[in-house]
Amino acid sequence: MVKVKDILREIEHYAPLPLQEGFDNAGVQVGDVNQHATGVLLCLDVTEEVLDEAIEMGCNLIISHHPLAFKSFKSFKSLTGSNYIERCMMKACKYDLVVYAAHTNLDNAVGGVNYRLAELIGLQNVRILSPQKGALLKLVTFVPEAYAEIMRNTLFNAGAGSIGNYDACSYNLHGEGTFRANAGCNPFCGEIGEVHVEKEVRMEMILPAFKKTAVTRALLSVHPYEEPAFDFYSLSNTWEQAGSGVVGELPAEEDELSFLLRIKALFNVGCVKHSPFTGKSIREVAICGGSGAFLIKDAIAYGADVFITGEAKYNDFYDVEDQILLAVIGHYESEICTKDIFYNIISKKFPTFAVHFSNVNSNPVKYL
Length: 368
Fold this sequence. Notes:
Blueprint: H1 4-14, E1 27-30, E2 40-43, H2 48-57, E3 61-64, H3 84-94, E4 98-101, H4 104-108, H5 113-121, E5 124-133, E6 136-144, H6 148-157, E7 171-180, E8 195-208, H7 212-222, E9 230-234, E10 238-254, H8 256-266, E11 273-274, E12 282-288, H9 296-302, E13 306-309, H10 314-319, E14 325-328, H11 331-335, H12 338-349, E15 355-357
Parallel strand pairs: 2-3, 2-15, 3-4, 12-13, 13-14
Antiparallel strand pairs: 1-4, 5-10, 6-8, 6-9, 7-8, 10-12, 11-14
Helix pairs in contact: 1-12, 6-7
C-alpha cells in the first residue's frame, strides 16, 4: 500500500525543496507522512472548505501550491484557532490529514509552474528567464585508475555530472599521486613509512549545491583510500536548469490586443490589467506566475515583447514605459495550473491511485 511519504518523494524528486526561496515554507505543513495514503486532494490554497472536501472524499493527503503556514510560520507561539490557518491545522491534526505545499521550489523547477503556463500559451524554445546564481559546485577528486569507472558511475547516480540536457559529464586527467602512510594507518596500497606513487585519475564534475551531502556520501562509499582527497569549489556560473520565470517564442507574431484577448480567454481571467500598448507585435513572451513583478527588468533586458505575471504594483505600469507590454492576469489565475502538474507527477508513478482536484475556488479576489 502506498504511504504518504512515497507520494511526496515523487513531488520532491520533480521539485526539490532546496530550490525554494529563502522566504518560503514549502514542504510538510502538518501531519504524519508515514501513514498509508487513502487519497490525494490537489489545490492551490488550503482553506477550511478544502479540508472538509478532503475529509468527505476520504483523502488524508492534501497537496497545495501555496503553503498553509507562510507569513506566520516563524512566529507560532500557540495554536488556538484564532485565524483560518490555525483552524486548518487543528482540523488537519484532528482528522490525521497531511498537508503539504510545493511553492517556489515548483516555481523554480524545470517543468514547473512557468513552464506549464508557457505550454498553455503555446510557446516554443522555452528557457528560464532568471537562472539561479551561486547554486553550483565543482567536485574534484583523485582516484586510482582501476576505480575510475566505478567512481564516475557512482557520482553520476548520486546527482553529479549533469550540464543542461547532458548527463554523465566529467573531466578526467591521468597522472601520479604520492603519499606516505604513517604508523597506525591501514593503506589501500603502499607500505607503512614508504613514499608510494600511484597512477590516479583527477576527476571533475559539476553538481547542484544541495546535492553536496549525497554526492559526498556516494564518493566515500566506493573510494578505496583510507583518506580520500576531494574538494568542492563554488562556481559563479548561473544554473540554467533552475530559476525564476521563463521566456519563449510564439510560433507566429500576434498583435497586442489579439494576444491579450487570447490570454484572457485561455486563463478565464475576470480582467487583464495591462500597460499602454507599445505598438509592437508580440513574438517573445516572458512569464512568471504569481507575484512576478520583480522580473520585469529581466524581461526587458532579455528583449521580450510582453511580460505576463499574476501581480504588479501601480508604479510598475509606469516604469515599463514603452519598453515592454506588461500584462497582469491575477495571482490565482496564473497558478491554478499547479494542480495539473501535481496530477501528472503522481499519476505517472501511481496510475491507479485516487487523485482528486479540489472543486473549491479559493481565490480571495472577486470581480464585478
